[in-house]
Amino acid sequence: SRVSTQSTGDVIDLENKVFSEKARADTLLETVTKLETQVKDLETSLEGVTEEKGLVEAEKRRIKELLVRLEVENGDLTEVKTSNINTIEKLRNKIKEMGSEQEELLVECKASYRTRVRNLENRIAELECSMDETVEKGTETEKTIKRMERQ
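-> structure tokens emitted (151 positions)
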């Protein structure tokens, strides 16, 4: 039970971590989308401005570097997410395995209980039979005593 609770807690912690990492990935994805939109906007506005070409190229390089960095971070987050998913799956399998073991123990316990109940029922039947014999002997003894008293 304690291991099951601990495993469940581990699963919850890992799921929370996965959700946190997903939120971070979503934020990065939004940032990438915004940056991509900014790049498109810049390209559109720069088509007519040829004298600032050097500045535009520098800005494009900077944005591309940011995009590369974001892609690397996104890749890292994907690895973390995959690792977390694998860990969660392992924990789920372990919990299922532990549940199966508990079910087996329960079946064994029920079988043992049934055997003990049958043994007790048999013993009760023996005692009842013995009691009936004792009562019968007592009745016979009483009859014998009454006969002797009459004589």
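The two ends are 76 Å apart (CA to CA).
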